[in-house]
C-alpha cells in the first residue's frame, strides 16, 4: 500500500497542446499508459473525443484557443508540466514566423501565471548561426520565447521524423513512388540525421523522468547520417522499386521546389515551402548528450522506413499529417442561398454492411464509379493549390471526427447513422456531402441510404460553378450511390452463405 501511495504522489498532471496533431496524438496514449493524468487542450473537444484513447481514465479535455492567454491560464491550472507541440506551418509571406512567435510568447506568459514547473518543446535540428532557413529560424525564435518566460524549458531538436503518416515520410514516399527520374535542387546532397517517430516519442517521454534534462537543449537523431538522395534510394529499396536516378541542378528555388512537391505529393505548397527551404541546412546532431542522459538504441533509417511501411500497409497508422486541420467553425448553412442535390436508394443489406461501405469511401478504394472524373477533379484542385485526392485517408475503413479524407474532412459522424464530409478543395463557396442511413422498420422493409450534396456559393462565380457541375453530379453521384449499395449487398453474401451453411448442419 505504501508503494502505491508513493507512486500516486509521483504521478504528474501533464498539459498537452497539439493533442489532435501528428506527434501529440501519439504521445497522449503513451503518457496515459505510464500513469500520468493528461489534460488535452484543443480547439475542438468533439474532434479530440473521437480519438480511441480519449475516453481512457486519466484524460481531461479542455476546449480553448492557444491565441487566448486567458483560456490557456485557466486550462493550465494545477498542471505540473506542459508540452508545447504547436507549429503553424503557414508559409504565405513568411507570416507563420510571426504567428508562431506570438503563440509561444502567449503560452509562456500563461505558464508563468498558472505556476507551471516545466515546459517541453519539440523543435527543429539544424546548424546554429547565420544561414538558417526561415523555417528553422522560426523554431529557434519559439525556443527563445519559451525560455524567456522564466519557466525551465527542455528543448528536443529533431530533423526529419520517419513515421507512417508523417509529412516528411509522405513527401519522400510519393516522390520515390512516382518519379523514377528526379530533377532536384542541390539540397539533395545535404546531410540529415533522421529519427523514427517511436524514438521521438521515447525521448519526449523519457525527459520527464530525467531531471538532468531540465533547462537543456538536446539534439536527438537516429544512428545514421545520410543525404536526401541516399534517403530516396533507401525508400525505393524498401518499397521494392528500382534504383531512382537523382539529378541535382542549381536552378530550382525553394518556391519552385514547393510547387513541384505540391503537384507530386499530398502536401500543400504552403506546408511544402518551409520544409523545402529548410532542406538546404545540414541537420545533424552536434553532440551525444541525448545518449548520455537517456541511453537508448534508436532505429536505423532502413528500420524506421520498414516499420512505417508495415504500419501503413497494415492499416495501423495512429495519426496522420492532415489530422490537425481546423474544424469548420460556423454552421454550414446559416443563411444565404444553398443548392442541394439529394439522392436515395434502398437495399436489403444490413445497416452494418451499408455503413462499412459508406465509411470506407475514398483513399485507395476510390468513389465506386466514374473514378476518372474524381481523379480529374483532384488533379484540377492540385493545380489551383488545393489538396487534391493524394492526401488519402488515415485508415482504409475507420473514420473519426476531424479526419482528412482526400479533399474532404469529416465534419460530423455518428456510426452507423450519418456521416458528413466538408470539402477542403478550392471552391467558390462551401460544400458538404452527407450520408444518412435509416434502419428497417414496419413501414420500410429495407435499409435506406440518402446522399445529399449541399453548396453555398460565394458570388456570381459560385452560382455559375454550381450549374456547371450539375450535369456531372448525375454521373458521379448516381454511380456512387449505386456502388455503395452494391458493395454492401456483396459484403452480405458471404455472411448469408455462412448462416445457411450453419443452419443446414
Number of helical stretches of at least 4 residues: 16
Helix content: 40-55%
Strand content: 15-25%
Tell me how many strands there are: 19
Task: Note the main sheet.
Answer: 7 strands, parallel
Point out poorly predicted stretches.
1-9, 327-335, 501-505
Strand order of the largest sheet: 3-2-1-4-5-6-11
Rounded Rg: 24 Å
Mean pLDDT: 83
Which structural class do the helices and strands define?
A: alpha/beta
State the name of the first-level CATH class of the largest domain.
Alpha Beta
Keywords:
7-stranded parallel sheet, 16 helices, disordered N terminus, 505 residues, 2 domains, 41% helix, Rossmann fold, single chain, Alpha-D-Glucose-1,6-Bisphosphate, Chain A, domain 4, 19% strand, disordered C terminus, 6-stranded antiparallel sheet, globular, alpha/beta
Structure notes:
The chain is built from 16 helices and 19 strands. It has two domains: 305 residues, 3-Layer(aba) Sandwich (Rossmann fold), CATH 3.40.50; 166 residues, Alpha-D-Glucose-1,6-Bisphosphate, Chain A, domain 4, CATH 3.30.530.20. It has a seven-stranded parallel β-sheet, sandwiched between helices. The chain has a six-stranded antiparallel β-sheet with strand order 14-19-18-17-16-15. It is α/β, with parallel strands linked by helices and 505 residues long. A hairpin with an 8-residue loop joins strand 18 and strand 19. The longest helix has 46 residues. It starts with a helix and ends with a helix. Helix content is 41%, strand content 19%. The radius of gyration is 24 Å and the shape is globular.
Amino acid at each position: 500500500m505504501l508503494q502505491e501511495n508513493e507512486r500516486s504522489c509521483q504521478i504528474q498532471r501533464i498539459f498537452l497542446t497539439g493533442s489532435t496533431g501528428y506527434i501529440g496524438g501519439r504521445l497522449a496514449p503513451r503518457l496515459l499508459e505510464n500513469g500520468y493524468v493528461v489534460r488535452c487542450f484543443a480547439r475542438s473537444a468533439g474532434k479530440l473525443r473521437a480519438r480511441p484513447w480519449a475516453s481512457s481514465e486519466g484524460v481531461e479535455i479542455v476546449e480553448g484557443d492557444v491565441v487566448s492567454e486567458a483560456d490557456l491560464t485557466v486550462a493550465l491550472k494545477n498542471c505540473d508540466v506542459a508540452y508545447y507541440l504547436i507549429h503553424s506551418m503557414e508559409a504565405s509571406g513568411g507570416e507563420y514566423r510571426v504567428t508562431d512567435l506570438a503563440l509561444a510568447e502567449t503560452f509562456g506568459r500563461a505558464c508563468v501565471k498558472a505556476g507551471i514547473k516545466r515546459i517541453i518543446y519539440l523543435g527543429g535540428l539544424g546548424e546554429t548561426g547565420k544561414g538558417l532557413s526561415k523555417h528553422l529560424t522560426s523554431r529557434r525564435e519559439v525556443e527563445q520565447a519559451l525560455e524567456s518566460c522564466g519557466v525551465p524549458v527542455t528543448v528536443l531538436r529533431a530533423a526529419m521524423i520517419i513515421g507512417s503518416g508523417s509529412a516528411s515520410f509522405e513527401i519522400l514516399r510519393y516522390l520515390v513512388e512516382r518519379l523514377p527520374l528526379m530533377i532536384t535542387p542541390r539540397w539533395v546532397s545535404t546531410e540529415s540525421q533522421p529519427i523514427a517517430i517511436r524514438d521521438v516519442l521515447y525521448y519526449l517521454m523519457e525527459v520527464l523522468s530525467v531531471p538532468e534534462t531540465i533547462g537543456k537543449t538536446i539534439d536527438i537523431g537516429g544512428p545514421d547520417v545520410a543525404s536526401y538522395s541516399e534517403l530516396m534510394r533507401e525508400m525505393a529499396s524498401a518499397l521494392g522499386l528500382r534504383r531512382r536516378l537523382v539529378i541535382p541542378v542549381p536552378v530550382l528555388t525553394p518556391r519552385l521546389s514547393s510547387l513541384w512537391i505540391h503537384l507530386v505529393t499530398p502536401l500543400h505548397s504552403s506546408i511544402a515551402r518551409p520544409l523545402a527551404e529548410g532542406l538546404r541546412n545540414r541537420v545533424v546532431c552536434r553532440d551525444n548528450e541525448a545518449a548520455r542522459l537517456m541511453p537508448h538504441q534508436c532505429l536505423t533509417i532502413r528500420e524506421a522506413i520498414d516499420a512505417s511501411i508495415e504500419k501503413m500497409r497494415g492499416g495501423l497508422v495512429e495519426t496522420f499529417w492532415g489530422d490537425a486541420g481546423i474544424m469548420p467553425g460556423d454552421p454550414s448553412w446559416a443563411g444565404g442561398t444553398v443548392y442541394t442535390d439529394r439522392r436515395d436508394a434502398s437495399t436489403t443489406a444490413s445497416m452494418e454492411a451499408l455503413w462499412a461501405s459508406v465509411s470506407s469511401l475514398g483513399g485507395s478504394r476510390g468513389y465506386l464509379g466514374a473514378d476518372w472524373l474524381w481523379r480529374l477533379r483532384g488533379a484540377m484542385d492540385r493545380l489551383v493549390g488545393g489538396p487534391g485526392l493524394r492526401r488519402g485517408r488515415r485508415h482504409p475503413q475507420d473514420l473519426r471526427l476531424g479526419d482528412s479524407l482526400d479533399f474532404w474532412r469529416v465534419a460530423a459522424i455518428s456510426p452507423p447513422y450519418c456521416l458528413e464530409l466538408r470539402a477542403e478543395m478550392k471552391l467558390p463557396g462551401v460544400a458538404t456531402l452527407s450520408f444518412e442511413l435509416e434502419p428497417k422498420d414496419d413501414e420500410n422493409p429495407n435499409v435506406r441510404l440518402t446522399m445529399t450534396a449541399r453548396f453555398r456559393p460565394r458570388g456570381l462565380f459560385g452560382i455559375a460553378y454550381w450549374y456547371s457541375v450539375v450535369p456531372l453530379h448525375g454521373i458521379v453521384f448516381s454511380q456512387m450511390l449505386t456502388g455503395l449499395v452494391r458493395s454492401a449487398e456483396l459484403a452480405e453474401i458471404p455472411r448469408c452463405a455462412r448462416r445457411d451453411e450453419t443452419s443446414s448442419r
